[in-house]
Amino acid sequence: MRRADGSSIRVLVVDDEATLTDLLAMALHYEDWEVKTASNGQQALQLSREFKPDVVVLDIMLPDIDGLQVLSRMRADGNEAPVLFLTAKDSLDDRIAGLTAGGDDYVTKPFSLEELVARLRGLLRRSRAAVADQDDPVLIVGDLVLDEDSYEVHRDGHPIQLTATEFELLRFLMRNPRRVLSKAQILDRVWSYDFGGSSSVVELYISYLRKKIDAGRPPMIHTVRGAGYMVKAAQ
Q1: What whole-number distance in Å separates Cα of residue 75 and Cα of residue 69?
Q2: What pLDDT, on the 0 to 100 scale, is given for residue 93?
Q3: Which of 26, 76, 157, 202 is the most buried (most CB within 10 A)?
Q4: Which are the contacts of 75, defined by CB distance < 8 A and separation ≥ 6?
Q5: Residue 73: what pLDDT?
Q6: Which of these, 1, 20, 114, lies nearest to 58 by C-alpha position?
Q7: What DSSP assignment string belongs to 155-198?
Q8: Could you give the CA distance from residue 54 to residue 9 in angstroms, rounded to a whole number?
Q9: H-helix or E-strand containing 40?
Q10: What are 31-34's contacts with CB under 8 Å, separation 24+?
Q11: Element containing residue 15 per DSSP (H, E)
Q12: 194, 143 Cβ separation under 8 angstroms
């Protein structure tokens, strides 16, 4: 997904948790989107005017002015970019307040990075901004085919049944063919950002994928010792 002029989607992420903004920025960079981050409301307003984002991820609880005020001032400035509210609050009142203020969607922490990216894609498709969706939902690496819309996977024409987590892991690998992805990158992208487990869960799911993708066939999923994992066409 890119802008109508072919340039990268611009995303403004506003949250006072540096670890979270760094993680979100990394995940959105994988989409080939341009990302700016802000840690408070005033900085967010300045970046909104200068950066002119296509979509905004906005925390409600900020150290200076809250996200609702930030959104109100953005709209007063003429910025109509869709806004995804991000907050630790989970009450119905907060949800209603955010959407009533002009927000377009609402995600409660902790959240799945894949879900957040999917919601941003949905907001961009529905927005009035001139955004061209040039993505092909079908990922192909060698004889391995993954359809992001139908959630179907085939290798050499044969269907492969995957769990939701196996599918997300394979999708992440196939979006980055021949690129070594570390366990930390995979944990951050496939699992919730605050997932408390160890990297052994990545090893476990890689083994699950190998049994389904590579069993009886030339291997496509490879371990790069000390670095991570990658997928490439079988030799």
Answers
A1: 10
A2: 62
A3: 202
A4: 102
A5: 93
A6: 20
A7: ETTEEE---HHHHHHHHHHHHSTT--B-HHHHHHHHS-TT----
A8: 6
A9: none
A10: 31/1, 31/117, 32/2, 32/8, 33/8, 33/9, 34/7, 34/8, 34/9, 34/10
A11: none
A12: no
Of 170, 155, 147, which Cα lies nearest the Cα of 216?
A: 155
Alpha-helix residue ranges (DSSP H) falling in the chain: 18-29, 41-51, 67-76, 92-100, 113-126, 164-175, 183-190, 200-213
Sequence-ordered list of residues with C-beta below 8 angstroms from that of 137, at least 6 positions apart, any chain: 147, 148, 149
Instruction: Render each residue's pLDDT in the chain as its tens digit; 235 residues.
Output: 777 677 889 999 999 999 999 989 988 988 889 999 999 999 999 999 999 999 999 998 899 998 889 999 998 998 889 999 887 666 556 656 656 666 788 788 878 887 788 888 878 877 754 344 445 688 999 999 999 888 899 999 999 998 878 888 999 999 889 999 988 888 877 765 444 556 788 898 999 999 999 989 999 999 999 899 999 998 7
Length of the chain: 235
Amino acid letter for position 140: I
pLDDT at 103: 76
- CA 65 to CA 85: how far, in whole Å? 15
Report the candidate in 79, 108, 78 with the shortest Cα–Cα distance to residue 95. 108
pTM (global) more than 0.85: no
Among residues 107, 93, 146, 124, the alpha carbon closest in space to that of 20 is found at 107
- Residue 55 parent element (H or E): strand 55-59
What is the phi/psi pair of residue 2, to 5°? -135, 170
